[in-house]
Amino acid sequence: MPVEGRLAVVRGFGLSGQSRGHVVAWMGVGALSAVAAIWVIDRRPAPAPDAAYAQTVAPAPLGARGIYMCPAQLGPTTFGLYMIDVDAGTLWCYEYTPNQLRLVAARSWIFDRYLEEYNVAGLRPADVAKLVQQQRSQRSRLEDLGGDASGESTGGSQ
């Protein structure tokens, strides 16, 4: 075979221009098919989050649990920190002064949630417990008399 013929075979793999385009297209289709096959076959789950071996990963919180911290501005020039213990039902506040934290308030809200109406500051948790007990006994007396919790009678003539 002459040199020109050998060069033509090397340059075009012995194919005409139109056939060469079909070969390139089919090579692309084959490469994409191979990638798709590997992607479908290799469906491993994503790696676990960064946890050490034998370390238990804490579940996502379903409800508010634990102690939370919230920075706050207590006054025009004073800043502080609120701490909330959801499990114990307490809230406390620290005021930040240079180089120290000073406890300024603390409260339990265990009994507060049972109050239906109250809008005056200055109650201690024990006072709130007494108010809740009074409201419950008043409600039970009203229900025994045939009235609803609002004090209106449900029975009788109008």
Overview of this protein structure:
The protein has 158 residues and is of the alpha+beta class. The protein has 3 domains: 3-41; 64-109; 111-158, no CATH class. Helix content is 35%, strand content 20%. The protein is built from 3 helices and 4 strands. It has helices spanning 3-12, 17-41, 125-145; strands at residues 67-73, 79-85, 90-97, 100-108. The protein has a 4-stranded antiparallel beta sheet with strand order 1-2-3-4, with no helix packed on it. Strand 2 (79-85) and strand 3 form a beta hairpin. The radius of gyration is 39 Å and the shape is elongated. It starts with a helix and ends in a 13-residue tail after the last helix. The model is unreliable at 151-158 (pLDDT under 50).
Summarize it:
The chain has 158 residues and is of the alpha+beta class. Helices cover 35% and strands 20% of the residues.
Per-chain topology:
Layout: H1 3-12, H2 17-41, E1 67-73, E2 79-85, E3 90-97, E4 100-108, H3 125-145
Descriptive keywords:
158 residues, alpha+beta, four-stranded antiparallel beta sheet, 3 helices, 4 strands, 20% strand, disordered C terminus
Please give the order of strands in the largest beta sheet.
1-2-3-4
The averaged pLDDT comes out at 74
Identify the overall geometry: elongated
Order of helices and strands: HHEEEEH
Provide the domain count: 3
Strand content: 15-25%
Number of strands: 4
Helix percent reads: 25-40%
Seen as an oligomer or otherwise, the chain set is single chain
Radius of gyration: 39 Å
- Biggest β-sheet, characterized? 4 strands, antiparallel
Q: What are the segments in which pLDDT stays under 50 over at least 5 consecutive residues?
A: 151-158
Number of helices: 3
